[in-house]
């Protein structure tokens, strides 16, 4: 920026301050003004809106079962009240009281609570153990450099190839477990079309058609990555011995994460425990169809309230069956339910970020002193004038390191 341009910029800046209206709101004040949202008014504010969502909600999971269960309950109630004789009603009332008494001793909350906590814990641990290639990419970017010239180009090839092999191992391992990745890459030919693997590499890996993850060769690309790193060290592309050791450790941790996820899926929650929990819940609510019926009032001591609709049983159904549906939904996080892992988006993110880190498409921003330079007590506050200065391109040459 020339001296004339700076003078013009300062004049324009003063003009903007002078002509500013007294009631004109600044940028920070405008952000505080929030337009009323009619959806918030109708459905509530904050966390109360959770009850009105549909995707992954309790209502989406249970509305069919609740409708069928309520209809069955009302049908039994109609038969009891309008089709049975007096003697038959008395006998059914004895059965109602007996079922009501016996159903109170079933340990539903204990069995279901422990089971759901176990499934949720496994679901979260499986996601946490999914490895991310970012750390490997950062180590490669900082340690596999090489001197300027042909070796610098070779270092770039090494970094990109190792990241490609890491992503390939991720796909080959997780596609054995995930329905979404299996649909996206049903065979190795789809992987060749994406460019993540070459035809000669596919021949060495194999067809990968086995459904058993332990029979897969998903580990082979990581073996190639180790061999490429060894050659890069011999060629002088990696000169830091501790850094080389750390890179091998990060690749080993990446392989360990994939192995642990595969082990989680291969060894699920014991089937007998799942069957016990489901059997207890189904038997409890089957007995409740009889035990929760309202008895017709005939004499003192009978139920004084006579309702056709099972209000509290409906609430209990939503609680217990909702709890059970949570476990069923999270039991296999590699499926296609609403709460299952979005592995396609996660894979796209890993590939884009890791390749961007190890590549040399652009230089980093110019090194400058920040605006807090020499401030004893810097504060992070909004400065609306900074956008105007940057928009006019005032580079402040005295702040640039040379």
What report would you give on this structure?
By secondary structure, this protein is mainly α. Helices cover 63% and strands 0% of the residues. The protein contains 17 helices and no strands. The chain has helices at 3-18, 27-32, 38-43, 58-82, 86-103, 108-129, 134-143, 150-174, 179-184, 188-194, 199-205, 220-234, 241-266, 271-291, 311-330, 343-358, 385-391.
Task: Offer a quick outline of the entry.
The protein has 402 residues and is mostly helical. Helices cover 63% and strands 0% of the residues.
Q: Specify the number of helices.
A: 17
Topology pattern, helix = H, strand = E: HHHHHHHHHHHHHHHHH
Indicate the multimeric state: single chain
Q: Would you tell me the overall average pLDDT?
A: 80
Strand content: under 5%
How many angstroms does the end-to-end distance come to?
18 Å
Uncertain regions spanning at least 5 consecutive residues: 14-34, 38-46, 391-399
Biggest pleated-sheet summary: none
Q: Total number of β-strand segments? A: 0
Structural class by sheet pairing and helices: mainly alpha
> Residue share in helices?
55-70%
- Coarse morphology: elongated
> What Rg do the Cα atoms give?
33 Å
